[in-house]
Amino acid sequence: MLTVSKTCSTGNRRRGRSETHIGQLMNRNWWDAKVNSVADLLNGPLALKAKNAETVLFQNLTLRPLLASCRLSVIMTCFRFLQRLRLALRNWCHQDLPFGAYEVLIVNPESPDGTHEHVAAVARGFPHIRVHEIAVGASLSTNKGAMINRAFEASRGEWIWLTDADCLFAPGCAATVLQQVEGQHLFYGQRRRLSAAQTDALLAGRADGLHDFAELAAAPNLRVENGPWGFTQIVHRRVFEQIRYSEGVNHFARTDDIFVDDCRRHRIRSRVCRTSSNPRDRAAKHDPG
Fold this sequence. Notes:
Layout: E1 2-3, E2 7-14, E3 17-24, H1 38-43, E4 55-57, E5 72-77, H2 82-92, E6 102-108, H3 115-125, E7 130-135, H4 144-154, E8 159-163, E9 167-168, H5 173-178, E10 186-188, E11 190-193, H6 196-204, H7 213-217, E12 223-226, E13 232-236, H8 237-242, H9 254-265, E14 270-272, E15 283-285
Parallel strand pairs: 1-15, 5-6, 5-8, 6-7, 10-14, 11-15
Antiparallel strand pairs: 1-9, 2-3, 2-4, 8-13, 9-15
């Protein structure tokens, strides 16, 4: 780790204007379907329709089989951290996992930096991944526990991966981690803190957090940190159902420690987990600079 559906397009012509709308294809319902048996679902024609549209164009339609149930829910929060979230979210959307195997949930406490618009754009740009914004009130912007718990309630994954919006992971990290995790443990990864120069290069676009990840992680003299802290905490869903993040402390960082302590009290041990098949590629965290 480095720290730093299907769609259709409808055109509606009114008063000489052409408007384009992007939306999700809806499942059939009893009132608008000619389905009398299972055979109709398997062998019947695919019919598409748009509501209240004068001109309709269906294009670039791709049908993808659901290859796996949701095994992993990645949860992060973002408040005034959009520059770094852009980099982190891009890497998460390029994970080597089957369609439907994971989702990314971003908790947004009314961040004024355009987080809402960016997450919506990413969700449209990667329709095969469930990229979902969890909107909460601005009063929770420093209550990390409350924000994470809201996201967990909306999650679907068998495993819960808590991380930060300024952490970069290699494209193969999710698949690598899912091959290792089992049982009721608190899994965590190693973190390498990028230099200020590396962070500037990423934010300026001179370095590519996706394609240059291995080079960034292998840079000499990076500060290495090992511990089950908030940049990488991975637990089975049953663990999080039993132990939630504390909402009684209105401090963003302190809740990480409390969660670790609560896990220990419930005899849930911490265990290190590789986040890359390459031993040199760990989580990389942007220098806050």
